[in-house]
Amino acid sequence: MEFTQTLRDQELKVTPQRLALLEEIEHAGHIDVDALYAILKMSFPAISLATVYKNVSQMYELKILEVIKVPDRKLQYEIAKAPHIHLACDQCGNVLDMNKCIDELMFSAESESGFKLNHSAVVLNGLCPSCQSA
Amino acid sequence: MEFTQTLRDQELKVTPQRLALLEEIEHAGHIDVDALYAILKMSFPAISLATVYKNVSQMYELKILEVIKVPDRKLQYEIAKAPHIHLACDQCGNVLDMNKCIDELMFSAESESGFKLNHSAVVLNGLCPSCQSA
DNA sequence: AACTTAAATAATAATTTTTATTATTTAGTT
DNA sequence: AACTAAATAATAAAAATTATTATTTAAGTT
């Protein structure tokens, strides 16, 4: 598994729970702690909610995970990757990643403000193409 | 007061607590519930934390307030205004509003993704100019 | 392959954050 | 001034998160 290496790189022990957690986050794209717990319980009936919280926070600190806040939803975790834009549809609830536009934004914002940026959290809300026509 | 009208427009009764709450949020720029409560207690020693929560949520639903999530901080409330970018300095903790760049971003993101956008939450982190030189 | 040890887990308690309930007070109207 | 619906304060309840601890397990070492 690819995540085995991710964990080793951060000197975290490779446990079945951690691998499943990462795989599920990757599969879901964006997911909150509760939903994650519910899903993991299917493979690990004895898993503790505290374990999910602990791991998720830990991996967030180690930058294995990122977190975004979509209005009116709980914090959503995702696998950390290159900075990107989150498009959240208010109708169907989907959250889409978009890699375009973000570099231009960061660049313009830096030169405009004089900030030296190292992190972005961009969440745009609206209706996705299919929900517009529906 | 300008906020008197804001409240009337939304058919909320104009109470001293509400006016103070709005004025304090405006004055702070961005503030979380706890800090807000602590400050309001100075003018209203008997104010209830539940009142702060209630009003803040209520005004958020009525779009009088907006909320942003800066990494590792509690939810920050601000007076709703035109969409803008939040620049958060990791050193001094300040959150700055920037009105440039956001329109271009929304426009590009819409045409790129096909979404019809109606809301943005952009938080960029880094070092502000003065913290860079310090 | 068994042994060792530090770390991870599950279970649980404790804490923190947020929301609900209710009696009292108050803003806005008549 | 009186009325009424809404807001507040106080409090309880619920939900979310973190801490504690005994047990289990991953990963290195013999």
Largest sheet of chain A: 3 strands, mixed
Indicate the radius of gyration of chain A in whole angstroms: 17 Å
How many helices of chain A?
A: 6
The portion of residues assigned to helices of chain A is: 40-55%
Low-pLDDT windows of residues of chain A: none
Oligomer: homodimer
What is the C-level CATH assignment of the largest domain in chain A?
Mainly Alpha
Tell me, briefly, the overall form of chain A: globular
Would you kindly provide a written description of the structure presented here, covering whatever features stand out?
The structure is a homodimer of 134-residue chains. Chain A folds into 2 domains: 2-79, Winged helix-like DNA-binding domain superfamily/Winged helix DNA-binding domain (Arc Repressor Mutant, subunit A, Orthogonal Bundle); 85-133, Ferric-uptake regulator, C-terminal dimerisarion domain (Dna Ligase, domain 1). Chain A has 6 helices and 5 strands, in the order ααααββββαβα. Chain A has helices at residues 2-9, 16-28, 33-43, 49-61, 102-113, 129-133; strands at 65-68, 76-79, 85-89, 95-98, 116-127. In chain A, the strands form 2 sheets. The first copy, chain A, has a 3-stranded mixed sheet with strand order 4-3-5. In chain A, strands 1-2 form a two-stranded antiparallel sheet. Strand 5 of chain A pairs antiparallel with strand 5 (116-127) of chain B, so a sheet runs across the interface. The first copy, chain A, binds a DNA duplex (30 and 30 nucleotides) through residues 12-15, 17-18, 33-34, 46-51, 53-55, 57, 74.
